[in-house]
């Protein structure tokens, strides 16, 4: 069910300022999701606020895209680093910012506010560097359930499992962690991703065609007739 009013903060990090930034700044939200891989989620979603402080002011896509690459890398690498692979993620963030400038007028929110429906939002998000169709589902669910963003058809493009989009408290966060840990242990994260291994299908022996069968019989008949003639001679 879509939220009637947006959450003032997202309970995905222990840093209160970072949690509030995620709820009010679309670029911060996207950076958090970009970094949410190969590191604890609190680290990933706390990073946008740290980055905002380090580069000064706001997480403006135009500003980030125009930054010297080395300067942005240094902002990511400075202690504490913003990711396990800070330099790589700095470059991805800059590339994403440039895409937002080029395709969405420098406003990250335009990715969903100018789309016709959830299908289009999903395609747009999945094309961002470091994103996927599955991550797009979680973002669409979060926009609808947590931030009350009206997206036509969002229900069909949001997770059908208990995801980050359902985390609205510390208790829900603990539940999410437990479910994710168990699913990963069974090789089924996100839920439904595990595919049963199928035995390779046996190739059926080629069927003999009627024409080939008839030709074979005719050849056998001729051979028999030849033998009979040879016996008479």
Structure description:
The structure is a single chain. The chain is an all-alpha fold and 233 residues long. The chain has a domain at 16-160: Orthogonal Bundle (Endonuclease III, domain 1). 57% of the residues lie in helices and 0% in strands. It is built from 11 helices and no strands. It has helices spanning 16-24, 26-35, 41-55, 61-66, 69-77, 86-104, 110-113, 118-126, 133-145, 170-185, 210-232. Helix 2 (26-35) packs across helix 6. The longest helix has 23 residues, at 210-232. The radius of gyration is 29 Å and the shape is globular. The model is unreliable at 196-201 and 228-233 (pLDDT under 50).
Describe the protein's topology:
Elements: H1 16-24, H2 26-35, H3 41-55, H4 61-66, H5 69-77, H6 86-104, H7 110-113, H8 118-126, H9 133-145, H10 170-185, H11 210-232
Helix pairs in contact: 1-2, 1-3, 2-3, 2-6, 5-6, 8-9
Properties at a glance:
single chain, mainly alpha, Endonuclease III, domain 1, 11 helices, disordered C terminus
Give a brief outline of the structure.
With 233 residues, the chain is mostly helical. 57% of the residues lie in helices and 0% in strands.
């Amino acid at each position: 069910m879509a939220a009637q009013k947006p959450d003032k903060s997202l309970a995905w990090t222990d840093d209160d300022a970072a949690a509030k930034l995620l709820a009010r700044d679309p670029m911060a939200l996207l950076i958090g999701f970009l970094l949410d891989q190969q590191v604890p989620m609190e680290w990933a979603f706390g990073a946008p606020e740290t980055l905002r402080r380090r580069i000064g002011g706001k997480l403006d896509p135009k500003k980030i895209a125009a930054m010297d690459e080395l300067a942005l890398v240094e902002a990511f690498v400075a202690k504490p680093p913003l990711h396990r692979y800070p330099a790589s993620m700095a470059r991805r963030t800059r590339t994403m910012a440039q895409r937002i400038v080029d395709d969405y007028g420098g406003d990250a929110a335009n990715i969903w506010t100018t789309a016709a429906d959830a299908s289009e939002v999903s395609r747009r998000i999945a094309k961002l560097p470091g994103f996927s169709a599955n991550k797009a589902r979680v973002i669409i669910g979060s926009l609808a359930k947590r931030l009350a963003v009206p997206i036509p058809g969002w229900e069909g493009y949001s997770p059908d499992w208990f995801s980050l989009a359902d985390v609205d408290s510390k208790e829900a966060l603990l539940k999410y962690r437990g479910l994710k840990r168990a699913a990963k242990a069974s090789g089924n994260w996100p839920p439904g991703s595990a595919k049963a291994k199928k035995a390779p299908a046996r190739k059926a022996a080629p069927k003999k065609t009627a024409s080939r069968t008839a030709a074979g019989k005719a050849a056998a008949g001729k051979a028999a007739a030849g033998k009979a003639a040879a016996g008479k001679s």
